[in-house]
Amino acid sequence: MEVAAHVKDVRFSAQKARLVIDQVRGLPVERALDILTFSTKKAAGVIKKALESAIANAENNNGLDLDALFISTAYADEATTHKRFRARARGRSNTILKRGCHITLKVSEKSESH
């Protein structure tokens, strides 16, 4: 059984979130929490909170065993992009793209046969 947690409209790019997500995908939740705690990336804090939420959902709503949980699915999709403009020389402007992302983490129990 998979239990999910979603974080919507986070204010950093999906590309930067994927750098952190790729490090923890497929790991047991305890190991993933350790990696996220000591990561220096801005995305690590948000992903850690999402993982803690997924763990709490699995324990409280579905009664899954915490020791057997691992991250089965993790991905970051692009969200809305806020467009801002900056004045440049000779009356022109440049567009600044402030990107956002949606983060999805799914945890599941490791079966005894694996």
Describe the structure concisely.
34% of the residues lie in helices and 35% in strands.
Can you offer a commentary on this structure?
- The protein is an alpha+beta fold.
- Helices cover 34% and strands 35% of the residues.
- It is built from 3 helices and 5 strands.
- The protein has helices at 14-24, 29-37, 42-60; strands at residues 2-10, 69-78, 82-87, 93-98, 101-109.
- It is elongated and about 70 Å long.
- Helix 2 packs antiparallel against helix 3 (42-60).
- Strands 1-5-2 form a 3-stranded antiparallel beta sheet. A two-stranded antiparallel ribbon has the order 3-4.
Structural features:
114 residues
**First-last Cα distance:** 15 Å
Strand content: 35-45%
Largest sheet: 3 strands, antiparallel
Secondary-structure element string: EHHHEEEE
Catalogue the unreliable spans: none
Helix count, DSSP H or I runs of 4 or more residues: 3
Indicate the percent of residues in helices.
25-40%
**Total beta-strand segments:** 5
> Roughly what is the average pLDDT, rounded to an integer?
94
What is the topological layout?
Blueprint: E1 2-10, H1 14-24, H2 29-37, H3 42-60, E2 69-78, E3 82-87, E4 93-98, E5 101-109
Antiparallel strand pairs: 1-5, 2-5, 3-4
Helix pairs in contact: 2-3
